[in-house]
Amino acid sequence: xxLTDKINxxxxxxxxxxxxxxxxxxxxxKNALLVQKTEKxxxxxxxxxxxxxxxxxxxxxxxxxAEMYLEQGREDLARAEQFQQEVIQAYLPEQMSAAQIxxxxxxxxxxxxxxxxxxxxxxxxxxxxxxxxxADNKMVSDIxxxxxx
Length: 149
Prior knowledge:
This protein has about 150 residues and is mainly α.
């Protein structure tokens, strides 16, 4: 079942259960998928990597919005953004733990023969490809820096 099919199915369930908050989050995902599919030069079907990148972008937007609302003292709006973030995250693949990321980074460093910070680009390039959608790039970057320092 594709992500679009899952979203459409879950929209129907949310409509039947009258879950307004979940419905808003699901419609935001559906809208982003439609926009992505109809962009100039895009294919009619999105590959999994594109879908994951899109979902990550939506989660990041919700997280930043919630932080901004909290700074402004608008807890009600922040809660709504945080709820949408949780709904969207449910469609992302399982994220790797820091220990799992460290194992992959250690393996990549030994495979590439990386010696210091000058080799960070090589390690990050390989790590980004291998861990796409499975780990937060900032966490991967921090671990690579720590290992190469």
